[in-house]
Amino acid sequence: MSKKISLTRYLVEQQRVDGKIPAELRLLLEVVARACKTISQAVNKGDLGGVLGSADSENVQGEVQKQLDIIANEVLIEANEWGGHLAAMASEEMEGIYLVPNRYPQGEYLLLFDPLDGSSNIDVNVSIGTIFSVLKKPDGTAGVSEQDFLQPGAQQVAAGYCVYGPQTTLVLTVGDGVAMFTLDREQGSFVLTRENVQIPPDTKEFAINMSNMRHWDAPVKRYVDECLAGKEGPRGKDFNMRWIASMVADVHRILTRGGIFMYPWDKREPEKAGKLRLMYEANPMGWLVEQAGGAATNGRQRILDIVPSKLHERVSVILGSRNEVERVTAYHLER
Ligand code: AHG
Ligand code: MN
Ligand code: MN
Fold this sequence. Notes:
It contains 8 helices and 17 strands. It is α+β, with helices and mostly antiparallel strands and about 325 residues long. It has 2 domains: about 190 residues, 2-Layer Sandwich (Fructose-1,6-Bisphosphatase, Chain A, domain 1); about 130 residues, D-Maltodextrin-Binding Protein, domain 2 (3-Layer(aba) Sandwich). The strands form 4 sheets. The protein has an 8-stranded mixed beta sheet with strand order 4-3-5-6-7-8-9-10, with helices on both faces. The chain has a 5-stranded mixed beta sheet with strand order 12-11-13-17-15, sandwiched between helices. Helix 1 runs antiparallel to helix 2 and helix 5 crosses helix 8. It starts with 6 loop residues before the first helix and ends with a helix. The structure holds 2,5-anhydro-1,6-di-O-phosphono-D-glucitol and manganese (II) ion (MN) (2 copies). One manganese (II) ion binds next to strand 5.
């Protein structure tokens, strides 16, 4: 790309030239990007910044929090609460919704985030990230409540993630395809590096935590068995496998070169719909993947059509290259 286009310019042009996003949403996305830069700095410092290790606390889902889970959550809240563009926020790391304090103006947007995705990778210096989703507060409701957040993913007005890896890359959709921005540390700004990202419809690469195989449901087992059978099996081709254990990094690979990602329901905790969170992980990633020509389902239903019944709802996730996701979904529906 000969002419460098910053995230700021990209967003201004989305707003001004194409009228695709309102000014308030542009501001919101700028602020989220700025928070991601701050988190990226903290991640980069690692032990030098004293940010590694456990925080000796648990979040609402009973998971032990890492220091960076808490730091990233605070950075996102502090960056977003005063700008006037938000009504409230919700995070994987907080039990209830976070209302914008009265001393600041209230806006019409709702911001949801997984402040630090891939927590188990923090201390071992493997890629991690931040995932975010933006909804609009429903018209005509006074104040703001948890109910206002319970909208299907199809209602998102913006979604994205920032992956803190060998490069820090922000990936964004406002419903007009997927764009990627690489952090230029000398300039201190995100620079557009890929536009109109497309996931190839077919793939020879799958991502799933294979250690859970004995707990899977039959359709998932069938799909993976067929992949493992390779050239001699029903698929007639050899498959490769990757599992980074950071959804951001796995989805980033899929947006870059295709593949299928699965964190399905399994028998370990049958009462839970899945491990991943619908509103902080599956919805934003599902929309990004769809915007890049891929598909995202829970095995039976499009992720973005699921109407959430609670903030921290979990979901089974199958997303990536369209033909593969359709195949796994068909295996579920055959039963
Ligand atoms: P988080 O760190 O936000 O709790 O999310 C971790 C998620 C997801 O990023 C990843 O795909 C998955 O958990 C990994 O789970 P396993 O350790 O069970 O493989
Ligand atoms: Mn996560
Ligand atoms: Mn997290």
